[in-house]
Amino acid sequence: MDWGMQNRLSQLVRPDGRCFFLPIDHGYFQGPTHCLEKPGATIEPILKYCDALFVTRGILRSCVAASAGKPIILRVSGGTSMVGKDLTNEDITTSIEEIIRLNAQAVGISVFVGSEHENKTLLNLARLVNECEDYGIPVMAVTAVGKELEKRDARYLALSCRIAAELGARVVKTYWCEEGFEKVVTGCPVPVVIAGGPKCTTEAEVFAFVHDGLQKGAIGINLGRNVWQSPHPVAMAAALEAIVHKKANVEDAQQLFNDLKKKR
Question: Which tens digits make up the pLDDT trace of 35-85?
């Protein structure tokens, strides 16, 4: 691995080998998502707990201060919306020149294995890897499932993660699954980070799947809605950071969450 690639990855993953990525890219297909109507105001109190922001170029330019001091993972796929016919029909939206101009430490792109547009999104990933490797920029593949959330089982996720790694992704973002998640991780030769998916009913559910996923080999999390849609986003972010970086268990995280919630 060349120095530039190593340097960028070292900015995303802490020396303990773990990471907490905060995605605020949801508007690229959802529009003004609940609690993300004003992204800059939403992330300001929780930014210190995360290791990197996953964001589109438009929101980066307009809502994130250049002095924020957090590494950027740039969302570079899109072209569909919630009201369109098919969320899986994405393409690459951002040039390599723009990625470099914005000083992104990594880029992220969705792949939709098993969808009508599987071939297109996988070739998008391959093309992006080809371009980014020349400049030492890591690519994170997002194993997305669109509206078909029932696809989130170990067999499907393992297939998607392995294909993404085979095509050159340096990191893979995927969903946690209750059964067989360790097989998803062990079958993927590059680091795996856990996606949040739809907002959970309680914070305890979030703490439980994050802790379980880390114990089964994931290096970190990429959670958005379960953080900034919480009634107590600061407490939520702090508790998740404790699980990721301070070896807190579910009970520890819940106690920290409760203590911080009372202070606000």
Answer: 999 999 999 999 999 999 999 999 999 999 999 999 999 999 999 998 988
Q: What's 42's domain CATH number? A: 3.20.20.70
Residue 255, domain member (yes or no): no
Active site residues: 173
Sequence-distant (≥ 6) Cβ neighbours of residue 127 within 8 angstroms: 92
Residue 210 amino acid letter: V
Residue 234 three-state SS: helix
Residue 22 burial by CB count (10 A; 0-12/13-18/19+): exposed, middle or buried?
buried
Domain that holds residue 60: 3-205+218-225
Does residue 194 have a pLDDT over 70? yes
CA atoms lying within 13 Å on the CB side of residue 142: 27
**Smallest Cα–Cα separation from 26: which of 53, 49, 56, 52?**
56
pTM higher than 0.85 for the full model?
yes
- How much is the mean pLDDT over the chain? 95
Angle at 108 between CA 236 and CA 91, to 5 degrees: 130
